Amino acid sequence: MMYSKDDYQIHDKRNMVQLDKVESLLRKSYWANERDIETIKISIENSVCFSLFHDENQVGFGRVVTDFASVAYVADVIVDPKHRGKGLGKWLVETMINDPRWKNKFQFLVTDDAHALYEKFGFSGSHKLMSTKI
């Protein structure tokens, strides 16, 4: 699927992921800054990926690991610092968690930050583990 907003698009087609851009984004994160390229590649191959583009450049990323039956783990949500402050992270998360493939499934994530963002979408829980109601 493809979603558009202003000059941005979100695609959920794995073949559109720009691996070099995702690696660069994750290198700037606290949770994946030491993740090697092979691990990043395997994680992409085994997830439903959501790529945020400005023009034809990937500026954001997130992925969902799911069994499509009962659970969906939201992971690696990140937006390039140059594109933050425009509501793009909120739009990316909203797009990911409202996907009909797991909309009414148990969704969870692990994070040390952005709790206020995730709470807007019904996530709650302890400092790191947050989940939504089924």
Give structural attributes.
134 residues, alpha+beta, Aminopeptidase, eight-stranded mixed sheet, 4 helices, 8 strands, 25% helix, globular
Molecular structure report:
- The chain is of the alpha+beta class and 134 residues long.
- The chain has a single domain (2-131), classed as 3-Layer(aba) Sandwich (Aminopeptidase), CATH 3.40.630.30.
- Helix content is 25%, strand content 33%.
- The chain contains four helices and eight strands.
- The protein has helices spanning 19-27, 37-45, 88-97, 115-119; strands at residues 2-5, 8-11, 48-54, 57-66, 71-79, 106-110, 124-125, 129-131.
- The chain has an eight-stranded mixed sheet, sandwiched between helices.
- A hairpin with a 3-residue loop joins strand 7 (124-125) and strand 8 (129-131).
- The protein is globular, with a radius of gyration of 14 Å.
- It starts with a strand and ends with a strand.
Task: Report a brief summary of the structure.
This protein has 134 residues and is an alpha+beta fold.
Uncertain regions spanning at least 5 consecutive residues: none
CATH-level-2 architecture: 3-Layer(aba) Sandwich
CATH evolutionary superfamily:
Gcn5-related N-acetyltransferase (GNAT)
CATH class: Alpha Beta
What is the strand and helix layout of this fold?
Blueprint: E1 2-5, E2 8-11, H1 19-27, H2 37-45, E3 48-54, E4 57-66, E5 71-79, H3 88-97, E6 106-110, H4 115-119, E7 124-125, E8 129-131
Parallel strand pairs: 5-6
Antiparallel strand pairs: 1-2, 2-3, 3-4, 4-5, 6-8, 7-8
